[in-house]
Amino acid sequence: MDLLATAVPALGDAFSLILRPSQLMFLVAGVLLGLSIGVLPGLGGIAGLALVLPFMYGMEPVAGLALMVGLVAVIPTSDTFSSVLLGIPGSSASQATVLDGFPLSKQGHAARALSAAFASSLFGGLFGALILTFFILIARPLILSFGLPEMLMITVLGLSMVAILAGRVPLKGVMAAGLGILAGTVGAAPAGGSLRMSTYDIPYLVDGFQLVIVGLAIYAVPEIVSLLRRDRPISNSGKLGDGWAQGIRDWWQHKWLSLRCAVIGVLVGVIPGLGGSVVDWLAYGSAVQTAKDRSKFGQGDIRGVIAPESSNNAKEGGGLVPTLIFGIPGSGSMAIFLGGLALLNMTPGPQMIRTQLDTTYTIVWSLALANVIGAGLCIVLSRWIAKLTTIRFTVLAPYLFMLIAFAAFQSRQSTADLAALLALGVLGILLRRFDFSRPAFLIGFVLSNQTEVFVNQVFQVAGARFRRSMETGWDYLLTPISIGLLIIIVVSIFVGIRASKNIRENIDAPTSGKFAPMLFLGCLTAYVAVATWDAWSVNRLQDKIFPLTIGLVTLASGLVLLVQATRRPATDELFIDLEQGEDGAAASGLWLTLGWFLGLLVLTSLFGLVIALVAFLLPFFRLRGSFGWWRSLLATAGGVAFILMLASVLGRDFPPGLLQRFVDLPWPLT
Amino acid sequence: MAVRQVVNFGLSTALATTALVSALPATAQQGPSLEGKTVEYVIPFSESGGSGRWANFFAPQLSETLPGNPTVVVRYRPGAGSTEGANWFQGQQDQGDGTLIFGTSGSTQFPYLLGDPRVRYEYNDWQVVLASGTGGVVYLPPDIAERFDGDADDLKDEFFLYGSQGATTLDLVPLLAFKMLGLQVDPVFGVDGRGGGRLMFERGEANIDYQTSSAYLANVQALVDDGLAVPIFTWGALNDDGEIVRDPTFPDLPSFKEICEATEDCETEGTAWDAWKAFFVSGFAAQKMIYLPKSASQEIVDMYTAALQEAIAAEGFAETAEPVLGIYPQATGNAAKAAHEQATTITPEAKQYVIDWLKEDYNVTLE
Fold first, then answer.
1. How many interchain CB pairs under 8 A, A with B?
2. In this predicted structure, what is the pLDDT of residue B26?
3. How far apart are CA B93 and CA A529, in angstroms?
4. Which domain covers residue B275, as residue numbers?
5. Quick one: B183 and B231 in the same domain?
6. Ramachandran region of residue A38, left (φ > 0), alpha (ψ -120 to 50) or beta?
7. Minimal C-alpha gap between A217 and chain B (Å)
8. Same structural domain, B140 and B127
9. Does the pLDDT value for residue A553 go beyond 80?
């Protein structure tokens, strides 16, 4: 009752805060942006938030929150379009939707699949907001009992999710996660500032890689390159078929399935590290496992649409729980969301929930309203959005590259940002090609720094307590909460390994020959060996122990994989190479396509981004897009004008090149 | 010089030179103007954090008080603990027409004082126009604070844990102070901002902490009122003669200098004290400064000084500034120069003392 007495007035205050016209406007703006980003294949929450982050400073907290939450909340709603209409996941949260949504669309029932998906999304989103409301209340009194050991346990729980994401060959998952963690340790150590895999001669590396860049490189770049190579219109007809009302009825008929999947979504969201890339598969797996008649799954069973779509919107509410309460990001996009909160002068954590409950609750309302508006808009606008998907991806891709390059540059305002984006982008492409789990890599990266810091700190604090007496030491470490979390971790590893077979990042598993996969594996192992040796040579114990331990574990799994690779037949899952499947059959080669992007970056480093964009877009539209000269010019001018407008509104510079070092040019060429 | 000659000539033979004069700034006679120009206010940090707030607080005020009302935009050049942005500014020393200013912080001063190998900038090349200060309050849990009676002598057998961001950050000042007082403090490094240190204190994991003045008022005062924390001293503040006095925001609390004087083995002169004072001024008393490039003329410097003075003297400045800057004097003109001088110089002995101490106690080196 006491809880309700605090919650209801705060909820009321928050409601009146969010209903002011200006705040609503920002919410709607966020929703519109989120819908467009969701529709574009390959771009998800990370890319979307990276684009609005520069706007945040100086915004009123409620308005800024409305913008960010609106954006994040509806991406899993609109990403359904490309999953259903094109069979390409609109973001990682809708991968499972493709399995049954795309067949339905091919049978002429796209409208049915979409309306069932929107109904499920709406329900899931509202459910997530509801759960978040209560979580915040329940957590309030408990928050101070979460000390460093408990925080460490929560982070390790996140890392243990690698088990479920590992993919077909568990050791490859361990390897990917280990690489992600090692990538997170590059630069000055958080405790003593010792350098790891970097030197003062390259100041860029000393700060380590920024999440925005890693996220874009590992997820967005490989997807865009892969789609670009196929050079297809995203969809052929842009027609939706029939079944609007049928879809809604379908959802109502399966409302309990929808509820169960929404619960799964919230739980997955709450666990740090697990994000969109798993939630849809878990929900789909659960739907398949509990169904009586499984024969239709994969051929257009509407339950295969309802399950993932109910869960992926619900996970945003869940993901906000650790983010707001502990400041531990629930996923990659939540980590960027945290950065946005800092810009709004808000520090998530106990303080915020205790003293700014009304502002915190505007997040809940934004989430709920955004879901309603988002689902509504999707239904109303679906006919036109479907038309959008008939545009050839080749025409969209250069704009996406342009946006990604601009967003990446905002992270450090250094041309090295672009080099890092490209280098990590190539890594992302190869991880995807050889079926190493990219979600596992990203989890490792996101949680790397926190794990290291917490391990060191717990060690120090516990050490001081043990010096006082054994009892105070154990009392500190073994609280009921940390023991409970430990049990959950162990259980989740076991359940995770069992459930991992339902999670298929890549649906086909073509293999052919050992050479390419083994070469890549060898390179990865060699890097890990160098990184491990480098960690060994750090002389400050606190700064060395974490990368050294992770390095050794990763190195061991790399070596075991190499040994296995020499023994197993070339058709083993170890040797998956997507180039031998649909990717290899695509219209253009991988390296040629990547070469275009490389060209953009080389030109940028010579002449600066603006000149480079003109020199990149024009031939791209002419050659790859087969546009006439006039259309190419028009398309180029439009793109450049858009980015100039964006930059001038934000007061941003563009990446300069060698030319700018010798000649003073006016903005925007500076 | 060229400007004035042309104007004088133009005044006497107005008709003939109309074209020439009209190409010049309209108010050239009264000094330079930035009409129609854009001033870039560069800070070597990202948008989040104190420097971002500070710069965005002053930017609109400058736009209003600078002659010609230029657009003032804040640009962020973060990287390598702010040394990357400062190195960049060092390369822009010929842009002295008043369209570029640079904001520094303690994090920019510390590597310079310590001789960090990444530092390729030289503070003495730059021309200071503003120095903003802040302060800090040290507090203890009530049970330990009972033993504190104006000196630290009775606290020397206590094992202290302190949540710290890192030994070469602003935390250098408290860590050195604790050492001088003879306290046994184990820093737990890698804490996320001062807020993280406060949370460790609230959870009982750390048992000594400090917060900057504004954070103390916002977050610790409530704990003090509830009897969960007891403030024991402040870092103090600088008076006009460059001496450390009580912090004007907390006049009832003694300064570190007073405590040090009262504590056995703590000296307020000598190498350790010189070192502490240099880093205190650099990190707190003159924490944030605005600089013009070397090539800026005296006219431009005066123009900025006048504009900042006008902004600071404006009605309502104190109220709007308090949540962002705290209630500390904003130094301009000669006062800013004096602050700059103190914040960027250290005796070679004091510097060596700090470097040796960092190496010995924390195994932290700046190779």
1. 103
2. 41
3. 44
4. 136-283
5. yes
6. alpha
7. 20
8. no
9. yes
Strand partners for B127:
B292
> Do residues B170 and B96 share a domain?
no
For residue A323, the distance in angstroms to the closest alpha carbon of chain B comes to 15
Phi-psi region of B38 (alpha: psi -120 to 50; beta: other; left: phi over 0): beta
* CATH number for position B255: 3.40.190.10
pLDDT score of A307 more than 70: yes
- Residue range B64-107, pLDDT digits in tens: 899 988 888 888 787 777 888 898 899 889 888 888 999 998 88
A408 to A19, A399, A402, A655: CA distances (angstroms) = 34, 14, 10, 10
| DSSP-derived pairing of the beta strands B330-331 and B244-245 | unpaired
> d(Cα B326, Cα B234) in Å, to the nearest integer?
14
Written as six digits, the tokens of A324 are 């707001």
Q: Are residues B185 and B207 in the same domain?
A: yes
Average pLDDT of chain A to the nearest whole number: 82
Q: Please name the member of B79, B166, B191 whose beta carbon is closest to the beta carbon of A203.
A: B79
Q: Does residue B351 lie within any of the structural domains?
A: no
Chain segment A470-522, per-residue pLDDT in tens: 888 898 898 888 999 899 889 878 877 777 766 665 556 777 778 889 999 99
Q: Which residue of A has its CA nearest to B198?
A: A351
Nearest chain A Cα distance for residue B159, angstroms: 8
* CATH code for the domain of B313: 3.40.190.150
pLDDT for B47:
65
Chain A environment of B193 (Cβ under 8 Å): 347
Question: What is the Cα–Cα distance from A77 to A377, expressed in whole angstroms?
Answer: 10
Of the three residues B283, B306, B332, the one that is the final residue of a domain is B283
Segment B13-36 shows an average pLDDT of 51
- Nearest beta carbon to residue A653 from set B56, B75, B78: B75
A190, A412, A651 ranked by CB distance to B190: nearest: A190
Is A68 in CB contact (< 8 Å) with chain B?
Answer: no
The per-residue pLDDT for range A70-123, each reduced to its tens digit, is 998 888 888 888 788 777 777 777 777 878 888 888 787 888 888 999 999 999
A-chain CB neighbours of B362 within 8 Å are: 192
Same domain, B236 and B337: no
- pLDDT score recorded for residue B363: 86
Q: What confidence category does residue A285 fall into, taking pLDDT thresholds of 50, 70 and 90?
A: confident
B42 and B84, same domain (yes or no): yes
Tell me whether residue B97 is in a domain.
Answer: yes
Same domain? For B111 and B75 the reply is yes
